[in-house]
From TrEMBL:
Pfam families: HATPase_c (PF02518). Keywords: ATP-binding, Kinase, Membrane, Nucleotide-binding, Phosphoprotein, Transferase, Transmembrane, Transmembrane helix, Two-component regulatory system. Residues 239-446 form the Histidine kinase domain. The keyword Kinase applies. The chain crosses the membrane at residues 21-44. It is found in: Membrane. The keyword Membrane applies. GO terms for molecular function: ATP binding; protein histidine kinase activity. This is histidine kinase. Its main location: membrane. Its EC number is 2.7.13.3.
């Protein structure tokens, strides 16, 4: 195995340190060596010899003390830096110099890097905490022993406890073990401390402190469904109220007029005509209200599609032949087939084509009908030369209509049929001309 690339640099620094220590030790011996040479070369009196030897010993001792202080000062500085790093204080720095100057420089660089890493970690942790706190989903992180190590605010609300009360508790103790045992992406009925309802359960493995852990995400579907359901009911009731009032208001007004007419003495000569006209209006509005309710029943009684293989070109040609009020141009398309209910799909196309014809009739325009394959989907487009779709978000709301005498169920029924077949419907303005474009998407046959 080849040594790491930084091994030569470490060896070089160690060699410099060894030479530095060795040089200091040799320096402490220089006075003794010098006196030894003098004593050998010069014939000095015994007293002088002893004095020179004592002076040499004192000089060597002083140099040795200086050398030790120099080495120990570097070691002490290094020990203090390492102690600060061990305690998590990355702000302390040493002054490079002495026997371990290069090592202290490296420790300073390490402290600087660790300090930068800590700042980035704290920023990332703060960002993670803010992100988890903003999530509506409850997030739980468990360690290898299924003890809770992290929970966001939504999770605390769901369990009706603060984070300090939850940390370290087991999944079984928190009634979450059963959710961890389920396959991911499951929708279950579960009771938490805060509420019970339908929840989507997702979990995934993760690593905590080098060991396997698990992440659990709980999405409260009940709140989302209740909000969507409430909005749908509000839209429906708004349209229902509008349509019912359109019928009941004139009925109430005409009935009051006829009642006041009967109280006159004597009756006017044309009272029979007034009564016939008033009763006729009441009958007409009652019939309109009955048709409205029949339309509502039609939406709720749509049966599941009876699928069979249909030729797209033949179906579209048959539908186009039914519209005679405005010119209908049928553009040639490819030979394609779909698995669909012929009656339902024909009804959806008739509704779309009728809306397009009525819009084009207002501008004395025409209708164009085309189809093509888009990947695995069939796209049927109906363009009209009318004024364009109305600027409203309620086009696919039951009983909403912008046409006088309209029922408001044509588009809704067409969309229900399309979605029952795994497709969709959209109504938008034509991109390069005046008018609207109805677009029906359906899966092609395999």
């Amino acid at each position: 195995m080849s040594p790491p690339a930084n091994e030569p640099a470490r060896a070089s620094r160690l060699t410099r340190f060894q030479w530095h220590v060795l040089g200091g030790m040799l320096l402490t011996l220089c006075p003794l060596l010098l006196i030894a040479i003098i004593l050998i070369v010069l014939p000095l009196p015994p007293l002088t010899r002893w004095l020179l030897l004592g002076a040499a010993l004192l000089a060597s001792a002083a140099l040795l003390r200086w050398h030790l202080r120099r080495v120990t000062r570097s070691l002490s500085t290094l020990a203090s830096l390492l102690e600060a790093l061990r305690e998590g204080d990355y702000t302390l720095r040493g002054v490079p110099g002495g026997a371990l100057g290069q090592v202290i420089y490296d420790v300073n660089a390490l402290a600087q890097r660790l300090q930068s890493e800590r700042v980035r970690f704290e920023e990332a942790s703060h960002l993670l905490a803010k992100t988890l706190g903003a999530l509506d989903n409850a997030v739980f992180a468990f360690d290898h022993q299924d003890r809770l190590r992290l929970v966001n605010r939504a999770g605390q609300v769901l369990l009706q406890a603060e984070a300090a009360q939850l940390f370290g508790r087991g999944a079984a103790e928190l009634s979450l073990a059963a959710l961890l045992a389920l396959p991911s992406c499951q929708i279950v009925q579960h009771r938490f401390a805060a509420r019970s309802g339908r929840f989507e359960i997702r979990h995934a493995p993760l690593r905590l402190e080098g060991r396997n852990g698990r992440l659990l995400v709980v999405n409260d579907l009940g709140g989302v469904l209740r909000s969507e359901e409430r909005q749908a009911w509000q839209r429906l009731l708004r349209v229902l109220g509008h349509e019912v009032n359109n019928s009941l208001t004139p009925i109430h007004s005409i009935a009051g007029t006829l009642a006041s007419l009967l109280q006159r003495e004597p009756l006017p000569q044309d009272w029979r005509a007034d009564f016939r006209g008033g009763l006729g209006l009441i009958e007409g509005r009652a019939a309109a209200l009955a048709r409205f309710l029949d339309g509502y029943s039609a939406l709720t009684r749509l049966p599941p599609p009876q699928r069979r293989v249909l030729d797209v070109a033949g179906l579209i040609r048959a539908v186009a032949a039914l519209e005679t009020r405005v010119p209908v141009t049928l553009e040639d398309g490819p030979s394609l087939t779909v698995q669909a209910d012929a009656d339902q799909l024909q009804q959806a196309l008739i509704n779309l084509l009728r809306n397009a014809a009525e819009a084009a009739q207002a501008n004395a325009g025409a209708v164009r009908l085309r189809w093509r394959g888009e990947g695995t989907m069939l796209a049927i487009e109906i363009d009209d030369d009318g004024p364009g779709p109305p600027p409203s978000d309620n086009l696919f709301v039951p009983f909403f209509t912008t046409k006088p005498g309209g029922s408001g169920i044509g588009l809704v029924l067409a969309r229900q049929i399309a979605e029952a077949h795994g497709g969709s419907i959209s109504l938008e303005a034509r991109p390069a001309a005046q008018g609207a474009r109805a677009r029906l998407l359906l899966p092609l046959s395999d």
